[in-house]
């Protein structure tokens, strides 16, 4: 089927099904193009909580679709490619979290949204890369804090706030592959370019960047910057949107290896099939829905 036909069918079905299509900044450009809303984790969480449509088609990875279901349990949430997961989210289990909490019974558990629904159900408050520092800073100084599952994001926040955190040994494999030498090489190749990275990068990489930003922050940074060249230190999918919104500016990936295979799994054909067949509905146990909603709701309240 030609792309035009695919898009026409998707548009027709989204109206018939009263559906909204949400897509993360890292997914394929063709999917970003047909989405009703494209954003980062925080933006998509807020959008999922507020949509009036009866059906949410979530183009991203599993934990994102689960978050949409947690916030809108009465809605049908479709995840077009259920095998699109998140390696970082899989680095923590609910039982492991309970075990750590037993060792630190008075600690506040702050959990990055890149986590499973079962893990969210065990924590005190969630965060995204856009609001993590704000959320941690609001916790009383005399409280222990467990930060999970991304040790790099946690370490960067700890350095920024000069605060000790108990860090979970997890990471994003895509951002973990970005190194200081890659930064130095790109600086030599593009001496006039501004260089920004995602705070999921290792602290030694963040220290060499001009800024460490969520994907939403990257979009604002480029829009407001007078620079004409940018080195982008995150998953390459964001470059599609950056270039589209800033046609007069040039973008180069910090590394050609910065590709998340899971984020690239969803295609237009998958979105169409999800709408046609109402397939791959996100279904979570009632107790998980209830318990996981509280830390996400606390995050959203703290983000206002």
Spatial extent as radius of gyration: 19 Å
Largest sheet: 4 strands, parallel
- The tally of strands reads 12
Number of continuous helical runs: 15
Whole-number average pLDDT?
96
What would you say the CATH architecture of the largest domain is? 3-Layer(aba) Sandwich
Strand order of the largest sheet: 2-1-3-4
Shape descriptor reads: globular
Could you spell the SSE succession in H and E letters? HEHEHEHEHEHEHEHEHHEHEHEHEHH
**Proportion in β-strands:** 15-25%
How many independent structural domains? 3
CATH fold-level topology of the largest domain: Rossmann fold
CATH 4th-level superfamily of the largest domain: NadA-like
In CATH, what is the class of the largest domain? Alpha Beta
Helix content: 40-55%
Question: What features would you highlight for this structure?
Answer:
15% strand; alpha/beta; 304 residues; Rossmann fold; 44% helix; four-stranded parallel sheet; single chain
